[in-house]
Write a structure and sequence with these properties.
By secondary structure, this protein is an alpha/beta fold. The chain has a domain of 220 residues: Immunoglobulin-like (Sandwich), CATH 2.60.40.10. Strands 1, 4, 7 and 8 form a 4-stranded mixed β-sheet that branches. It has a 4-stranded antiparallel β-sheet with strand order 3-2-5-6. The longest helix has 17 residues. The radius of gyration is 20 Å and the shape is globular. The N terminus is likely disordered.
Length: 343
């Protein structure tokens, strides 16, 4: 599961008016193959450590088949994802030096720990907020029945796919992903990841078909709704995007990527005030993600609050000094400064 989208920031170019003016692509945030490939603060160093631990419940019992994600602490980008074994254990190897967030998910419940990785092994034990194994069922606080039905071999192929993608081995990752889906065609995590890859290749129709199947396979899988929202945004179907994202929000209210996509949908509808509210929520969950500043500057331009827009764009450029978004931010900043001086 790529919650913050491998997560992954999708590098899809979106053909809508506001996007054409430099609006960020759907997952310039956290869920895409491209950005998830590098570790946090990656400046070309290759030192690597490892992270391992056990996921337990409030009673101290190990919990199996829980998804554990490794996220860049500064951007929220999901770098890798694994499932705990029968002893509740997980491991991430080959982790570059830096700051990370390790997050465990069971249904809509989650727990996390922030850690620093050097060249030595790091242990991060996580405690889930329930006292015993949740019952299978359709309730919001229950682990999805669909998750328990995934064959172990499919999980292994999916984990290999994520690992390959995180190392820029796209072709190998796609092969493992296809094997996972051959073993289990209704594997929502794998369908969603394939949808992300298809979005990054501008195959929006294919992506939406896979995402719809993922939702049908596991109606409690929040990430599928969030990525579907991104796909609908790219198709200019903003009202549908908002409906999908609202469903994702109800399942995972702490997913900042959902609010980020929601803001983009509202900008597509020229409802800039609602976009700002969504960005406020996203920023409360991940305050250090620079793209939030960029999108907020865009929304403030729409509200004709040019001085505030200039402040946000300058803050973005302090963090991100090169790249297409930086070039567009400089253009917007120049416009904001000119318009802000007019009486």
């Amino acid at each position: 599961m790529f919650r913050t989208l491998l997560f992954l920031s999708i590098v899809t170019l979106v053909a809508v008016p506001c996007f054409a003016q430099g609006f960020p692509p759907p997952f310039q945030s956290g869920i895409s193959p491209s950005q998830a490939m590098a570790g946090p603060n990656d400046h070309g160093f290759h030192q690597a450590g490892s992270i391992s631990g056990t996921v337990i419940n409030l009673s101290g019992d190990p919990v199996k088949s829980v998804q554990v994600q490794l996220q860049d602490a500064s951007t929220g980008t999901v770098l890798s994802s694994v499932y705990t074994n029968n002893s509740g254990q997980y491991v991430f190897s080959g982790v570059r030096h830096g700051s990370y967030e390790v997050m465990a998910f069971s249904g809509v419940r989650q727990t996390s720990d922030r850690i620093e990785v050097g060249s030595w092994p790091v242990t991060a034990n996580l405690r889930m907020p329930f006292s015993s194994k949740p019952d299978d069922g359709a309730g919001q606080n229950a682990v999805s029945v669909a998750q328990y039905r995934i064959p172990e071999k499919a999980r292994q192929e999916f984990s290999k796919a994520q690992d390959d993608l995180s190392r820029h081995k796209i072709e190998d990752g796609e092969k493992h992903l296809e094997r996972a889906l051959e073993i289990c065609p209704n594997y929502a995590d794998a369908l969603t990841l394939r949808g992300i890859l298809e979005l990054s290749a501008s195959k929006t129709d294919n992506a939406m078909a896979d995402l719809q199947k993922a939702i049908q396979s596991d109606g409690n899988y929040a990430l599928a709704y969030t990525v579907m929202g991104a796909a609908l945004n790219s198709s200019r179907k903003f009202d549908e995007a908002i409906r999908s994202l609202e469903r994702g929000e109800s399942l995972a209210p702490d997913s900042w990527q959902t609010y980020f996509e929601m803001a983009k949908a509202y900008i597509g509808k020229s409802d800039f005030a609602s976009a700002i509210r969504q960005l406020d929520h996203a920023q409360s969950l991940t305050p250090d993600f620079p793209m939030l500043r960029y999108v907020r500057g865009f929304a403030l331009m729409g509200l004709k609050q040019y001085q505030q827009a200039a402040t946000e764009l300058q803050a973005f450029l302090e963090k991100v000094q090169s790249g297409p978004e930086s070039d567009r931010a400089r253009q917007l900043l120049s416009q904001a400064q000119q318009l802000g001086t007019k009486p």
